[in-house]
Each structure stands twice: as C-alpha cells, then as structure tokens.
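Re: [help] complex structure
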Amino acid sequence: MSDATFPAPAGCRPAALVIGGGIAGIQAALDIADAGFPVYLVERSPSLGGRMSQLDKTFPTLDCSSCILTPKMVDAGRHPNIHLMTYSEVVRVEQGREGQFRAQIKIKPRYVDMDKCRGCGLCAEACRLAGRVRSDFNAGLSKRAAVYVPFPQAVPLVYTVDPEQCVYLTRGVCGKTFKCKDACDAQAIDFDQKEVQQEVEVGTVVVATGFDLFDPLRKPELGYGTYPQVITTLEFERLASASGPTAGRIALNGKLPRSVVFIQCVGSRDNSLGIPYCSRVCCMAVAKQAHLAHDRLPGAQISVFYMDIRAFGKGFEEFYDRVRAEGVLYRRGNPSEVLRSGDRLLVRAEDTLLGERVEVEADLVVLAVGMAPRGDAEGVSQMLGLRQDPNGFFLEDHPKLRTVESGIPGIFLAGCCQGPKDIPDTVAHAKAAACAAMIRLAQAEKVTEKSHAAN
Amino acid sequence: MLQIEANPIVQAHELLGCIQCGKCTGGCPMAIKTKLNPRSLILRLLTAPDGFDLEGRDELWDCTTCATCSSRCPKLVNPMETIISLRSAFVEQGRVHPNVKTALESTFRQGNPLTMPREDRAAWADALELKPMQAGVEYLYFVGCTPSYDPRAQKVARSLVSLMKKSGVDFGILGVEENCCASEVRRLGEAGLFEMMVEENQEKFKAAGVKKMFTTSPHCFNAFRNDYPKEGGVEVRHYTQVLAEAVEKKNLEFAGRFEKTVTYHDPCYLGRHNGVFDEPRAVLAAVPGLKLVEMDRSRQKSLCCEGGGGRMWLEGTNPGVRLAQMRVKEALDTGAEVLATACPFCLLTLEEAAKLLNVEDRLHVMDIAEIAAQAL
Amino acid sequence: MPFVPKVGVYICHCGINIAGTVDVKRVAEYAASLPDVAVARDYTYMCSDPGQALIVDDIRQLNLNRVVVASCSPRMHEPTFRSAVARAGLNPYCFEMANIREQCSWVHPAGREATEKAMQLVAAAVSKAVRLEPLEQREVSTTPAALVIGGGVAGMQAALDLAEAGFPVALVERERTLGGHVAGLQRTFPTLEPTAGLLSSIVARVLSQPRIRVLLGAEVKEITGFVGNFVAKVQADGQLEEFAVGSIVVATGFEVFDPHQKPELGYGTYPQVITTAEFETLAEQGLDVNGRRPRSVVFIQCVGSRDQAVGRPYCSRVCCMVTAKQARTVREKLPEAKVSVFYMDVRAFGKGFEEFYDETRKAGVLYRRGNPSEIVRSGERVLVRAEDTLLGERVEVEADLVVLAVGMQPRADASALAGMLKLSRSGDGFLMEAHPKLRPVDTAMAGVFLAGCCQGPKDISESITQARAAAGAAMIPLMRGKVQIEAATSFVDPELCAGCGQCAQVCAFGALSLHPFRPIMTVNAVLCQGCGACATACPSGAINVKHFTFDQVMSQVETLSDRCPLAEEAEAVEIAV
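Output below.
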C-alpha cells in the first residue's frame, strides 16, 4: 500500500488519527479499526515497531519481543481500515467544524517507490556507504548503508534513502553511476521523489509518541562515553538480541565478560539532575538482562546494584525470586563512581546492607537509564494544545479517573508519552485510549446520522 | 558520653529525605581508610531514640569536605554539611584537637591560622609595588593566608602578579588589612567565629570599595562566593577564570615555552564544589609546548588531596597515608612530568607526598600560575 | 479426482529461540525429503511480513494445498498463519503447526536429540496435514448489549464506556451499594484528594446513565451461550431475571489477606494491631486506640505479600503507596506522634509516586528497612521486634498502634463465577488474561473480558484504565454486529452412534443432545468449543472433533513412534554412497 495515495474516506465514517507507530499506536489503531472505523496511523520513522522492536526478550515471561510485536505490525499494515503512513509526520492540527480535527501530514520522500520495492536489500549491499553509517536501531553498535530498512521485519518492508547520509542527496553527485539504482532490478530507486503534504479530517486523535532515554553523559562519574565497557540497557538489549550486531553474543570487542555489573536508577529518582520520578520498568528490565547475561555467560559473576527493587506487577516478584535463585547477586547501594582498573573497570559503592564500601571489578557495566519525555515533546504539545506535567510527559486530565484524556476533547493519550510504562501497561493504556476514541467516533456518527435524517 | 539532640540536626539538614542508598559512603575518599560512613551517620541521627552520642565519633574529623557525597546525592541531602554541624557540637564542648584550637585562636587574633603576625602579611609583595585596593580599582586580588605566609605558596602569588600585570588586569590588594576568609573555620565547626569574621570582612570590602575579586585559593573563592551573604553583590572569581578570559581575548599571550607533559589535578573546591573544570585547562592548553594528559580520576572524580575540611591542621590523626600519596601515584601513571594544580592546599599536600614517595625528581608539583608565568 | 496433497513446510528460527538449540536448516532439509512435501524452507521470523510472504507466494505459485509451520505454540500464532494462508486463497484449516519451541527448543539443551525431536514433530505435523479437511468459518451476529459483573470502580467504568458507546448494560453488584473497596477509602494517593468525591462522581454518572441497569444485592446464577450470544440468569431480591448479552466483563475485585494467618504479628490478640483497611475507618473516627491517643505508630509492609510461607509469593502492588498515604494522615492528625514504616523495598513506581514518597519522608515519617519478625506485649503498649538491616542491628520499637499493610488476594467467592465462565487462574490465583502482553483484558473464553483487581492487584487509576481497555475490547464485536466462531467442532457419525448419551454427560458446554427423532446424538456447533471430551468418552468412536479426528491424531502418534529421522538420514547417505 503506497503512502502517497489515499482512499476516499471509507464510506464517510468518521476517522481517527493515531500519531506514533510503536506498540501503543499500533494497538490503538488495531482496536479502532476492528470496531469498523478508518484510522490514519502516522509513524515518523520508516517502519512501525518503535522501542519494542529493539528489545530482545520481555519480562517476566521471557517472550521474544519480535514474536509478539511483528504479528501486530503485520496486522496493522494489512488491516483494511488502517491507512498506514510511515516515514510521515504530523505538522499541524487544527480544530475543524463540529468537533472534527484537520491534520496536515508531511510524507517524507524515501526516494524509493513503495509499489516496486520488494525489500530484497541489493541496493544496500551496493551502496557506497555500506557499513559506514551509524545504525540508530542498533544504538550505534553497528553500521549500515545510506539506503536501509531499520530491521529485517520492518513494516512496510521498503527501503529508504537516508537524506542526511546519502552522498547524492548531500553533495549532489555520487560517482559516475548510482550504485543503488544499478543494483535494483525493480527500478524502485527514484531520486525525483518529493515531499508530499496531505490533509486529513478526523474525528479523534490518539497521541502515542513514546519516549526517549536519559543521556548518561550527564552523569560523568559513571564513565559512559569515557570507558567503552560502560553501556546502557538499550545497548545491552541490542547486544543480546538475535537480530543485533553480535547475533546475541554478549561480547565487547569479541571478548566475553567475566564480571557484569548492572547499575539501577541512572537518570531516575535523582533530584540532583532534576529528575525526581521513577522510570518504573528498569528494575524488571535489569532483572531480565541479568538473567540473560547469566544464561549466556556461564561462570561469569553478574551483580545488580540497586536502591529498591520495584517488582510490582503480575509475575514480577516471582521473576525476581527466580533470577536471584539462578545466582545473580543483588547488592543494595547506589554506586558513586566507576574507575579504570588496568584493562577492567572498578565500580565503587557502599553495600548498605553490609555497611561496608565495596569495589567490584567489572568487564561490562550496564547503566539502567531512565525514561525521559521525547526531545520534541514541547513542540508536539504546542501543536496539539496538550499540557505537560512537571517532568515533561503529557499531562492526563485526571490522574485517577481520566488517564487517557488530554484535556482537549477528542485528543487522547496512549502509552509512554504520558509517563513511563511497561508493555502490558502500555497496551492496556492504548486500549483504553482506543475505547475513548471509539466512543467519540460512534457518538459523532450518530450525530451525523441524525442531522442527515433530519434533512 | 557526649549526648546531643539529634532532631535539630535532622530538621536543619532535612535528613528525612535520605533513602539510605549509600552513594555518599560509596564514593567518600576518606571512607577508604577510616571509619567515616556518612550514610550510617545519617541513619543513626534519624533513629537515635534519646539523642546522638558523639563520644568516640572521632571519624567526624576525618571528613575533608570534598563534596563527593553532597554532589552526588540523588535526594539532595547534604551529608557534608551534616558532619560540619556535628563538628560544631564538639566545638561547643571544647573537644577539638590542640592544633585546631591553635589555628582557630590564631585566626581570631592574627587574622590567619598559621600563627603568623598580622603585620607581616603583605611582606611577600614588598618588592612588587602593588596598588592598595580602593574604589576605582577594578579587581581585588584576595591573596589568602597560605600564599601570603608560606614561602612555597608565596611563589604562586608572585607568579600570579606577573601574569595579571602582563594581562593588563587592574587590581589591588588589601595588604595587612587582609583577613582570613574563614573557610576552614566554618568547616571545622566554629560557627561563631565564622560569623564574626564574615562581618569583619564584609565591612573591609565595603570600605575598600570592592566590587569584583579574584582569589589564589579555591577555598577563599568558594567561601566568598557561596558562604558569604549575597548582599553587597561582590563578583567573586578564581584566578584561573580571569586568566582564561585573558587568554581568550588575547590579552595574555606567551612568548616562551613550557616543554613538559603536564597532568592537572582538579581541586575539590574549584571543581566539584563550583563546577570550574574547563578554565584551568584552557590556561594550560594555551601554554606553548605544554602537553596535557588526563588522569583517570579527573573532573568530578578527582581524588581529594586531603587538605580541606581543616585537615591541614589534623595531619596524622588517622591511620594510613594521606590520599595525596595515592594521587601522586596516579599522576605518575600518566607519564606526566608535572602535576599541576590551582590550590595552595593541594600544592602543599601533593608536593609533600611526592617527597615522601621520593619521586620529586620525576614529578614536579606546580601551580598553574607558576607554569604560566614561566612561559611568559 | 483423488486428492493429491502438496505440502509446504516452513521452519522458523524464531531469532535464536529455536535456531540456537535446533539445527533448523537440517530440519528443513529433512522436511523436504518427506512424502507429499513440495517445498520446505527456513526463515528467521516466520510470523513477520517477509515470513508470511514466503507462505503466500508458495501457495500461489506452487499450488500448495496444505501448509505446515514449525515454530512456536499455536496459542501464539495459529491465527496469524491461518490469516496468511487465507489471504493466499487456501482454507485456513488446511494449516497445521508443529510446536518446536515451547515443546522442543525451550525445554531441551542444544544438540542432536533436540534436532531429531524437531524433525519428528515436523514429520508428525505433515502426516496430519495431508489428512486435514477444509472447514467452514462461520459468523454469528452479536447481541448488542453487555453484562458487567461487579460494581466497584472497574465495573462501573466499564459499564459507563459500554453505555456511552450506545449499548445497554446490566451491571450486577452483589452488595447493596456500588463502589466496592474504594468506598472504604478516605483519600487516595498521590494527590491526597478525598475518595468520596471521586467515587460519587462515578456513581452519579452510572445512576444517571439511562442505558445502565444497576442490579444491587444481585448475583449471577448461570451463564449459557457463546461469544456474542450469552444468556445470563441474575438473581436479585428473590427474582430471577434473564439477560441476553453479546459481551461479558468480569470485574469482581479482590479481598484482603487475613492477618490471622500470621499469628506472630498479634492481629486479633492485641487491639492495637489493625490492618490498612481498618485504618481508613479509624482515621475518620479520630485515631484513638484503646481510649488513648497514640504516641508511636508503626506501619508494617508486605503482610501476606512477597511471603511464600503463607502461599503469597506475589507483590500486592499498592501497599507501599497506601502506607505512605496513611502515614501522612497520622502525621497530619497526630503531629506529636512518632511514625515509622518497616519495609523491604519501597515500590513507589507510578506517576507522582516517588515524589509522594519524598514528601512523606520530609513530613516526618521514618522509613526503616527490615521486615518485623514479631509483635509482643509491653505493658499497655506493644513492642515491634525487627532488624534494621541498614543499621545491621536488632531494634525493638514500642508502639500504641501498629498498622499491617495486608496484601490483596483473589476472592474466594469468585470461584463459582470463574467455573461458570470456564476462566483459568494464573499461578497467583487471580483470573488469567489470555496473554499478558498481546491480550491483557481478554480471557481464553471468547467474549469474556477482565477488568480491575480480579485479574491482579492494581491501584484505582490502573483499574479504571484497564476497565476502559476491557470495555473497548468488549464493544468491538458489538459494534461490528457479528463475530467469527470456532470451526473445529465435534461431529457425530450416525452409522456408529448408539445414542447412549455418554458424550452429553461429559460435555461442559451443553452442546450435545439427543436428536429429536433419531436414536443418535447431535452437536450444537455454536455451543461446541471443540474440547474433545466427548470424543474420548464415546465407547463406539462415533464422535470426532473436526481438525482433530481419530485418523488425524493417530497418524501423528504413528509417525512419532515409527520415524527415526537421524537413522533415515544416515541410510540415505549410505544409499547415495
């Protein structure tokens, strides 16, 4: 299905706009579409999937994230009621007549014809920059070409030319011939593509724009950016992932670590950074990663430094019990600094239960970085008229009774853009937003029917 | 038994905010070699049913006030200030080390903790024809007690004068009118004497028409900038900030060279306390021929030399060698020939450590001012 | 024309979940060698778009008429692959899955034997596949109405959403008032707003919503039917009333742990020891205990949670915040009293929770890490004996009031309802959702949804959010007006059936009955869930479940016992040589 063509508003039923194609946006779109309403699902990156596509396994069941996510991505891509607009951005939203919204959507040029591309990947192999462009999907741990799909199970499975890296697009010329065009036997590469602006009219908007991660360079004493052996939980996730840069081998520079130390609460519960809140998921994410590390690195010492273990959800405490029983060592204390010790690192903390300082040698230190609002949250909130809470997440209308309402009638919030959540809570929140959206659309439809009947 | 009421301290320092995460003790440099455990102290204050017993709590004097604990606390609790308050309780009972008592009395009587006569304070500048500070002079150069009286540190003051003159900075000194900033007085817990000296100093500055000042010592810099009341609005800078600005504006250029490998030790009161990490490095980087290498423990992780918190007068009161010796070894590990710093206490303790380790020939300890002055 | 099977076999790597243990390429090669197999492939994620495309393309181009995917459990992706197959124009019941993940790669170490087992499972699936028959997928219309069982905040919210979407709702509540457990609370965290206001606003909306029929003092006695077409019999005020509904939302809530089960804490022995639930009322009445104003109040977390000794290993999620809220209340009402909280971990994870915890400590509440071991008498007071694990010392704290943060547990009286609806329970005893991530509000019973604490401990905002999610899921089939039903139902061979009725006796769904005028049994295909109990019970082998016939299943069993794939491979090599 091409992003650039639009079906006529499906039988004139009122439609929904879902902004964001991660699991929250996908779930909300599927529910509204299943109820029979047309949905515009707009995603900024070339593929659906969001953060969940970067995860290896999920807690507490250790389901593989892709296994749960990709079928929903496929459903969303194929649903007759969902109009998928990837590599697109909502640039303006205005209140229209009768409670409708008019949204202006910018469809960015991929420079690849979506109807012709089969996702074979020959263009990327041939590209002059193959293996030289930082892969954001792999958190910078691997490189790709200037023409790419973010991951092999992308929906839609269509290549995209990165306009900031492509030699032709940045410098006007790419050698004597276009290597990508030459390699493509479907003639899908098209550098004449232009940005297209599209306006849609919808009865409701669901905001599912997700989150960013805390930048650990803001805590220099932990050594991120100075020592290559200090990484974030996201980078660990990519290392551990079968589809990641090391095919699941937890190794840095080819060496398997003998001692892995996880540090909780980096960029959360930290008033010295102005970040007072808890990021909710990191205790369990680390327990899962510690389990994986223990599983894949036999004989290695795995430790977790924490302040409180927040294993609050269904099956969480039992998973925490299991991980400790497997031999992961939990030590209560928030490490003060990480230093170099020969080829290894030294994590300095107090074990508050021993009441003694400890210095733990490590080959790999994983920082559990907190969830932060997206860098452009302020811009999005201004575009839609949303409010932000003191921490920058979108503010719900009431913390108990109306967690999906934004305060603007007809605009609903779904997922982590409203605050940190794990996957089950995100899906429930997105389904709740969809419910509110469906009710509004159903009521709008009745109003329209009544006024038509009256006429 | 030396029982004090815990509650006033708990309230004054909002200790209930503490979640006992242990980050303070985990990073405390003195916890490496003494019983000092800031987290545990806070918990004892919180849970003390009948009050807190100071008896036997000599580790309270081991704190160097390096601010590793308070700069990292995620709940913005300040263990360092809590320890200073506990010291006040000792002071009120007269329970202080004789050296400290001497230093405090000397500060009161002679305006310096070094038991030197007040009238000799400006002797180091005799040959330099420096302006007395008065209204209309742009900067007060606040020299500080150690650079005024200690022969080794006097070299720093003289180097600094050359540099400022060369940079065209308009400055004056208070001469024998200059009084101790009282930073260490406060940190030793003598709150009463500190308040007295603050009043005295503020009047002196007003009388001399001081609007801006720069200091040799980060301790003075920190005291005037953060401990003194803000009314009066004196702009306080450390000398490295003035020199860095002069370098940037090309008012200070170096005709000579300093062909050495240099590593820089961030003084606690300049770096961790006040966030001044870049300016000292900018000055060093501007010196031709100088190769700057960094120790692993640089910037926020800089290892305290153990000179602060009144410990210049408490040497030998805890087992184990001074942290300065660990620091000198770290400097040697980088291959540096010169260990640079920007604080007179660091200068003295690190140089002494180099002597004790017998590495003076391999590693010279110098103040940034001395290095830069050599390259003028 | 005789049917010539052409089977496509697809071996999924599932990333490294399968490929890390099983040699998937070898399994694909082996599959290609099996009779009737036209093509065998392997791929990293068969459920993804490119994976599904392999199947669709092969069906179209190679005219496959049966498909086998060897991957994860059918519970995960059978619907996914059935859709893919249907897209290519093949009947979705011509598809069979071999579970080589949960039943192979996840339970065995990597090696020869795991690979051989996967090969056997694939061979068995192929032999069943060639015996599969296309089945008709039927749709039935849905009754545009809903039943909500439970009138707490979750039930009320679900009812409101369904009603606002335009559907009549019957809201059945066992007590004589709406509100559930929330009605017993004074204030909520983290805003400390009075609960009465919150609750009355919801109740008012429910009572003024004309589409909601509230039945108080009412109980569901019987539920029959199937998705989109349930009939519920509700007893209220001695009357039995029937409701025809399309969707059911279960919101029966929770009960609290009974601290008598922890006698060492003195509940029931010492009047000074109460629960967090009782605190709410006590606080309203002025907090005097035994006629005295407490000078020292101690809260104890995790009573009946995180406690394997009383069979409650799970966390009850809300108690850390409930305790913080109640501790704040004590500080407000009794400024002179010392308040401490004994905890193991402080779980202040939600929006505004950590900040609330910060404020609670600043308000003068002392948090001490340690789980008290016992409470003993100390004159007119009690003594809480614990270790303060951060001091590393035992402590004994005198108290005038001890509040036990009792955990949530599943309701004992919900068992009957769960049985009626054939709802499963998770390991912790709460009602089980169909999938914790994919389907958090569905149950294994189509058309029945879960909302609120009956599914697991949650706070008010999470209950309400989940209730809306459940209402959304419940309204979809009602909005569409129709729903698909299970095609794999049982059928009777009239030649073999003697009409003995053994099958009807074991059928939990009432789907079997005697034919009106022939001495044989008949199956109601819409009630039948395809569970197979009848087929097992029948002494004549007259009843079979479609898609799981005797022939089909026996072919799998025989294949598993007859085939030795590795030996066959070795033979093939020898012959080739």
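The CA atoms of residues 218 and 238 of chain C lie 9 Å apart.
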